[in-house]
Design brief:
Oligomer: heterodimer
Shape of chain B: globular
CATH superfamily of the largest domain in chain B: FAD/NAD(P)-binding domain
Distance between the termini of chain B: 47 Å
CATH class of the largest domain in chain B: Alpha Beta
Number of helices of chain B: 10
CATH topology of chain A: Cytochrome p450
Helix content of chain A: 40-55%
Shape of chain A: globular
Number of strands of chain B: 31
Distance between the termini of chain A: 53 Å
Radius of gyration of chain B: 23 Å
Strand order of the largest sheet of chain A: 1-2-8-5-3
CATH topology of the largest domain in chain B: FAD/NAD(P)-binding domain
Radius of gyration of chain A: 21 Å
CATH class of chain A: Mainly Alpha
CATH superfamily of chain A: Cytochrome P450
Strand content of chain A: 5-15%
Number of strands of chain A: 10
Chain lengths: ~400, ~475
């Protein structure tokens, strides 16, 4: 039941034509929970196997443990903690978390509630007089970008500059040497370098200066474990900027799309704003912003569902498929904001559980509640909407709606 | 009437009594209603007031952060029960299906759940236990009293017993900058639960935080002043220490005394039951209508050679309560076995300690991930070459993996390296001070000759 060669389904999923609805293909993929690919990599698609691997200490996040090197490995730069294993991962994540969450900074996310509400309301105020609104460009993109800039201490007006780099980096995430022009990869590598230069420049100005933003606080931290090196701070800021930028936009947009497709739920949310907490969890299961962890490495031989994955193999984790696994969730293709026992994989699991998850939750809760309250009988212009290219960070590139 | 009809009638109109209205009792009551039981439900508890959560009593309540009254357990659903609180049960009549209460009342039932839990083991000299400033910590009144005593700024606190509760209380004292002495008969803190290697780490943690830790000694005498206030403790090595608060943290006593004449297999180790939480009689026969859950249940675990194990763990109480409740209203074929691998957590000296499995069921232990000197690591426990438990210090996110190793009887020591594995890790003997799963002394005697008349009698009735 486990190992067979099923390259076709994966390639169909990665193909742009599947972007609007990859879920039937995930169901096909789940028939082989651990699927060895022609190139020797393994694709994991079922909930139990995914959670088992995400908690397995033999699964490495460090590309240097792959027996065949990744095409886009950056030489000589410090990886950010998302691409590291313990103990380095743990140390860097702890040093970053000191300024973002409990136990050292417990109130930060909740304390941003008024600011988030004000940003959201400002953006919706600007809808006035518009016949047609693009939920992505007019709302779901500018909102988290404003928030992450504020939080990190990156000037909001620089957004046009770093947006180009971030796009190129995200674009190169799913680089396939067999299909894609080498240019796609080179652009990504160059963009990473440009973004590092830019963040390094910002960091230089922060040493010895007071300030509440993360860059300044990381630059001047004197905690018991010492300070991150400048290289480490740049890598961390790089990660937080990209992740804070490119994921929440999909979650909010997927949320609005899902609500427009489920008008009874939309109406219920108008009447019961508290429903939003469970609704966002269900959204993280049903239409998550991150569909795939494109690679992990087997640090040792790993046995999953009776298949032994040899040391050094590349492993692809299909998180969005796991969250729709009927062996774990009743009626998984139904969007049910009342769902109990909803331990989705929307933020991953284990030590790499999404660092910014608490912020993304709150942003999405505030955003969707404000949208349903303030839009007047919104309608989708096109269903499905056009999608971004990436199968990894999946979401609409535009979501046009009209209101009365 | 078919048995299905009988079950339906019981679910509709039956009478269930739950003796013990704490975590396990409340969760069982909620689960019974969730399972569709609409009959009468009686909750019997010796404490006055609503069920509350105990883990915070040795942690957040003692720091003063959460008031003792602020730990009431959240209600997951309305249970529509009759509450008989403030009076303990003092007997169970299996012939007539009645619970006797200490005030003479009788509660009839069709099925009963016993979840009477554990009480704190008091100081062995009653007059010394009664001194002002001598505490145990089990109820919220205890925790409230100790919190006030700590807030008054004692010159020194003596903690007697360095198990989890004692160590947590010592940690709180240091957090509040109160001088504290910890006295432990074993060679190190936590050693009875986690073995010598972890005990050494726990010793280092306590000493690094300024605890005056004295191991291998016994407190022999608590001395009071003329006003009846605790002032000084005497140790078995002849030394003394002046302190004005003493916390007796010597573990618990299972509340089974009230079942002494019930004919159930109840004793100091708990009440024996099957994995479906049905109680056993003293003869070892299974009962149909008597169920057990929580700290007081002594349940066989197939993973651990079907040994009867009782656990004083929060998660165990919750899971067992749900299984017991389900089985109370289900036909034989639909019953669930309680097979969860135990988990446990503690917070002390800034370290999150978490375990999975039964660490006392082991002969060797090995550090598999992280660094012991940094107090960030995972240690796996093995018995006869298979993984039986794991303990993490500030590394809890990995334990799910070790749970799977335990469930699949994976080889010990785990053969494959991890990115964070110590290079020189070798299994060492686990070294517990006493055999944890073996009773000392006889608990029963068997009488009779003919198979129809062979019977078991509890040994306590012969003493």
């Amino acid at each position: 039941m486990t190992t067979t060669e099923t390259p076709d389904i994966l390639h169909q999923i990665l193909d742009y034509s599947a972007r609007a609805d990859p879920y039937p293909l995930y169901a096909e993929l789940r028939k082989t929970p651990v699927a060895r690919q022609e190139d020797g990599s393994y694709v994991i698609s079922t909930y139990r196997e995914l959670t088992g691997l995400l908690h397995n200490p033999h699964l490495s996040s460090d590309v240097r443990n792959l027996s065949r090197p990744m095409p886009a490995t950056e030489a000589d730069t410090t990886p950010s903690f998302i691409n590291l294993d313990p103990p380095d991962h743990d140390r860097l994540r702890r040093l970053a978390m000191r300024h973002f969450g409990p136990p050292h900074t417990p109130g930060l996310v909740d304390g941003m509630r008024p600011d988030l509400t004000a940003i959201v309301n400002g953006l919706i105020d600007d809808f006035a007089g518009k016949e047609r609104i693009d939920i992505v460009d007019d709302f779901a993109y500018p909102f988290p970008v404003t928030v992450i800039c504020h939080l990190l201490g990156v000037p909001r007006e620089d957004e046009p500059r770093f947006h180009v780099w971030v796009n190129a980096i995200v674009d190169s995430l799913d680089y396939d040497p067999k299909k894609d022009p080498k240019e796609k990869l080179d652009n990504g590598v160059q963009a990473k370098e440009d973004l590092r230069q830019y963040l390094g420049g910002l960091l230089e100005q922060r040493h010895g200066r007071p300030g509440d933003d993360l860059l300044t606080r990381m630059a001047n931290d004197d905690g018991p474990e010492g300070r991150m090196t400048d290289d480490e701070i740049v890598s961390t800021a790089n990660l937080l900027l990209i992740a804070g930028h490119e994921t929440t936009v999909n979650l909010i947009t997927n949320g609005m799309l899902t609500l427009l497709r489920h008008p009874q739920v939309l109406q219920r949310l108008c009447d019961e704003p508290d429903l939003i907490v469970r609704l966002v969890e269900e959204l993280l299961r049903y239409e998550p912003p991150v569909h795939i962890i494109p690679w992990r490495a087997a640090y040792s031989d790993i046995t999953v569902a009776d298949t032994t994955i040899p040391k050094g193999s590349q492993i692809m984790l299909m998180l969005a498929s796991g969250s729709r696994d009927p062996d774990r969730f009743d009626d998984p293709d139904r969007f049910d904001p009342d769902r109990q026992d909803n331990q989705h994989l929307g933020f991953g699991s284990g030590i790499h559980l999404c660092f910014g998850g608490p912020m993304a939750r709150l942003e999405t809760q505030i955003a969707l509640n404000a949208l349903v309250r303030r839009l007047d009988r919104p309608r989708l212009v096109a269903d499905p909407p056009p999608y971004r290219p990436s199968p990894v960070l999946r979401g609409p590139i535009h979501l046009h709606i009209e209101q009365s | 009437m078919s048995s299905a009809d009988t079950l339906q009638a019981f679910k509709r109109d039956g009478r269930i009594a739950i003796v013990g209205a704490s975590l396990a009792g409340l969760r069982a009551a909620e689960a019974l209603r969730a399972e569709g039981f609409t009959g009468s439900l009686t909750m019997i508890g010796d404490e006055v007031g609503e069920p509350y959560d105990r883990p915070p009593l040795s942690k957040q309540v003692l720091t003063g952060w959460v008031p003792a009254g602020g730990t009431t357990l959240p209600r997951r659903r309305d249970i529509d029960a009759e509450w008989l609180l403030g009076v303990p049960a003092d007997g169970l009549d299996l012939a007539t299906n009645h619970v006797h209460l200490a005030d003479g009342r009788e509660v009839p039932f069709d099925r009963v759940l016993i979840s009477t839990g554990v009480r704190a083991r008091p100081w062995f000299v009653e007059s010394e236990a009664d001194l002002d400033g001598v505490f145990v910590v089990r109820t919220r009144e205890h925790a409230d009293g100790l919190q006030r005593a700590l807030a008054a700024g004692p010159s020194r606190v003596l903690v007697i017993g360095a198990g989890f509760t004692g160590s947590e209380i010592a940690s709180i004292c240091r957090e509040r900058d109160i001088p504290v002495t910890v006295a432990e008969l074993a060679p190190a803190p936590l050693v009875g639960a986690l073995g010598a290697m972890i005990g050494e780490v726990a010793s280092d943690m306590q000493r690094a935080h300024g605890v005056d830790l004295r191991c291998g000694v016994k407190v022999t005498h608590l001395e009071g002043d003329a006003q009846g206030h605790f002032r000084r403790a005497h140790f078995s090595d002849g030394s003394t220490i002046d302190a004005d608060v003493a916390v007796v943290a010597l573990g618990g006593i299972r509340n089974t005394d009230w079942l002494r004449d019930s004919g159930l297999a109840a004793g100091v180790w708990g009440i024996a039951c099957d994995t479906g939480c049905r109680a056993l009689t003293l003869d070892g026969l299974i009962t149909d209508d008597i169920f057990v859950a929580g700290d007081v249940a002594r349940c066989p675990n197939p993973i651990y050679e079907y040994r009867l194990i009782s656990l004083e763990h929060w998660a165990n109480a919750v899971e067992q309560a749900e299984v017991a409740a389900h089985n109370m209203v289900s036909a034989q074929a639909d019953r669930w076995p309680h097979l969860t691998i135990p988990t446990f957590w503690s917070i002390q000296f800034g370290v999150n300690i978490k375990s999975v499995g039964v660490p006392t069921f082991a002969d060797e232990v090995v550090v598999t991930q992280g660094s012991v000197p940094d107090h960030r690591f995972v240690a796996a426990y093995g018995y006869q070459g298979r993984v039986t438990a794991a303990v993490s210090f500030n590394n809890a996110k990995w334990l799910d993996h070790y749970r799977q190793l335990i469930e699949t009887a994976a080889p010990f020591p785990p053969p494959c390296p991890t990115p964070d594995g110590p290079a020189d890790a070798k299994p060492v003997p686990v070294d517990f001070p006493s055999p944890q799963l073996l009773a000392q002394g006889a608990t029963v005697v068997v009488t009779g000759h003919d198979p129809s008349e062979r019977r078991v009698t509890a040994a306590w009735q012969h003493r």
